[in-house]
Design brief:
single chain; 175 residues; alpha+beta; four-stranded antiparallel sheet; 4 strands
Length: 175
């Protein structure tokens, strides 16, 4: 056990501290001593520096370092899952935005829409079915007269084009 009240020992610890060779426990002893005792005149500058640097006693514990290491190791294992989740969310957001834009463009036409025109919900339903059947990374849909051209980019980089039209009898969409 170190007798921190002994000035010679304190001066040795101060020398180690200035060379950045002290342990957390030794720095904590110096900090505690200077918080509880008035520093000698030749130790006042270093006492102020130690007390300012270690104002938060919780930072001096080894538990804090272990907790930091635990948190950092947990966050390193998650980026892949987070990135995949962000890709899916971004893909769905882009698809929904595209559907709203398509709906807005088709509503702004001056010519009356034909009876077989698609609404946004029908297009979204067909795109959703397509995404469950194929390994799709992105989809674009372009209305052309009485049908919709759907272009799907697959995970392997290839693209496929589909034509969405309505059955003449039921009026339900099909691709």
């Amino acid at each position: 056990m170190i007798n921190i009240k002994d000035k010679e020992i304190r001066l040795q610890l101060i020398a180690k501290y200035l060379e950045a060779e002290t342990t957390i426990a030794e720095e904590a002893m110096l900090h505690t001593y200077y918080m509880e005792n008035k520093a000698d005149e030749d130790e006042q500058a270093i006492a102020q520096m130690i007390c300012m640097e270690h104002a938060d006693a919780d930072l001096l514990s080894d538990d804090g370092a272990e907790e930091f290491d635990r948190i950092v190791s947990e966050t390193k294992a998650k980026p892949r899952k987070t990135n995949v989740r962000h890709l899916w969310i971004g893909g769905w957001a882009a698809a929904i935005t595209l559907l709203f834009v398509l709906n807005f463009v088709t509503q702004r036409r001056e010519e009356p829409a034909p009876s077989a025109a698609f609404n946004t919900i029908e297009i979204a339903g067909c795109i959703q079915q397509l995404m469950t059947v194929e390994d799709v990374t992105s989809v674009t849909a372009s209305p052309v007269k009485e049908c919709v051209l759907v272009t799907a980019t697959l995970a392997d980089g290839t693209t496929k084009m589909y034509i969405m039209n309505k059955d003449s009898e039921e009026g339900s969409p099909s691709m």
